[in-house]
Design a protein that fits this description.
Helices cover 74% and strands 3% of the residues. It has helices at 27-63, 69-104, 106-127, 130-140, 152-169, 171-180, 185-200, 207-226; strands spanning 7-9, 13-15. Helix 2 (69-104) runs parallel beside helix 5 (152-169).
């Protein structure tokens, strides 16, 4: 569900056409198209914050004298983005079902802005929780070494684990992206900046909490507008 360019819907919002098959497309074609765009977008969004981890992994595997540290690092990155691609498929299934339902039920479409606001509000609250802090700490931490550098299987397993943790850590910001526009360049740049800042900024700056406060405030404002209070 989106608020930027797309199909006008009841309730004064717009829905991205990325959720639905284009003329002549099957649902399988639409899913593959979405997955391709999603994967490219996630690589562009996550790579700035992932590069320091990959660099530490490469250095650690070189120091441990593991064979082919470059290939092991590549396997970590490939496994990491595989998790994001799988998440993209789940997002498409849920998003397309909701889009279809909104088109069939104008009464439900009317409530979508309110639901978007609630979604942002919950995302903002999550940003300020201890669970978010623990997940972010795991995303920031360097690999422990040892068995993680032993072979390609270990490298792939590490990448999958890191990808899963980072997906959970970024869940609130992905929620923001879905509301602002899953394929909108402005939304992508905004969320990329937020993810990179919370990963790389000193912890003393409390960047995740600041992002959460802004997100929750935007959600509250959207709820108020949908309720006609502003």
């Amino acid at each position: 569900m989106e608020t930027m360019d797309g199909m006008p819907m009841p309730g004064d919002w717009s829905m991205s056409l990325a959720w639905l098959p284009m003329c002549g497309q099957t649902w399988s074609d639409a899913a593959l198209s979405f997955l391709g765009m999603w994967t490219v977008m996630m690589v562009a969004m996550m790579l700035p914050s992932l590069m320091p981890i990959l660099w530490r992994y490469h250095r650690g595997s070189s120091l441990s004298r593991a064979g082919q540290p470059g290939l092991l690092t590549l396997l970590v990155g490939a496994a990491y983005f595989l998790v994001w691609a799988l998440l993209g498929m789940l997002v498409f299934v849920i998003g397309s079902q909701l889009a279809t339902l909104a088109m069939r039920r104008p009464d439900l479409a009317q409530t979508t802005p309110m639901l978007m606001g609630a979604w942002l509000l919950l995302a903002g609250v999550f940003q300020c929780t201890p669970s978010k802090a623990r997940l972010l700490a795991c995303c920031r931490s360097a690999p422990e070494g040892g068995g993680q550098w032993a072979n390609g299987f270990a490298a792939s397993a590490y990448g999958l684990r890191l990808g899963l943790i980072c997906c959970l850590s970024c869940s609130a910001l992905v929620a923001v992206l879905l509301v602002l526009g899953v394929m909108d360049l402005r939304a992508m740049l905004l969320v990329t900046a937020a993810i990179t800042a919370e990963r790389l900024a000193p912890r003393s700056l409390r960047v995740p909490e600041a992002i959460g406060t802004v997100t929750a405030g935007a959600g509250g404002l959207l709820i108020a507008q949908a309720a006609g209070l502003t």
